[in-house]
Amino acid sequence: MDLNFSVLQEPRGFMRILHFIFSILAFASVTEYSGSEKFKCSDKEYTFEYEYPFDLYYNQTFNCGEHNRYEIIGNFSGDAKFFVWTGILALLYTIGIIAVYLKFDTLYRQNAKIPLADFIATVALGVFWLSSSAAWANGLTGLKYVTDVDVLKNPCSCQITSSGYSLLNISVILGFLNFFLWAANLWFLYKETSWFQGNKFHTTSGV
């Protein structure tokens, strides 16, 4: 099997390697996250754990007076799933197009439709990264609010310990970084399309 690994040294090939790495990091930072709220009331400890896809529902009654109920309710699964779905789709496309680069690079250069399809697919996935990252950033803001220690305070005066959101904050940064990487690759892909080749031909002919 003849594979042309030299294409990975070209900008369009090298960028695909970055797409592969950062797509995994982005969606894995969401799916691997596990958060918790720990309540210590009247020498008893209660724990509410939550994870992807972040459809939160917690209703706990404590023995500490008349107003003794804690509720944590919030469904952020839509935003989280959109973000993860985008990451997985981007990963699968990256694997597929790298295989095309390695095995069918000659056909890629000779058939004008393939570079054009690659360019359009990259535009679409770039838009998905931007929109899903914005959606997930909004969802994460809501998640932080409903699990905020200050929001959860009630007359029971329980001691509440909340886990951090560092990994989820990183996921949002990675999402927008992925958008930048996919957008940055468009110029290199555009140079492979018939649009660029045609413009170059007309420019040369006009000189």
TrEMBL record:
Residue spans crossing the bilayer: 13-30, 82-104, 116-137, 170-190
Recorded family membership: Belongs to the synaptophysin/synaptobrevin family.
Localization annotation: Membrane
Domain MARVEL stretches: 7-194
GO cellular component, one term: membrane
UniProt lineage: Eukaryota, Metazoa, Ecdysozoa, Arthropoda, Hexapoda
Organism encoding this protein: Cryptolaemus montrouzieri
Keywords, ordered alphabetically: Glycoprotein, Membrane, Transmembrane, Transmembrane helix
Recorded topology in the membrane: Multi-pass membrane protein
Protein name: MARVEL domain-containing protein
Coarse class of the protein's main subcellular location: membrane
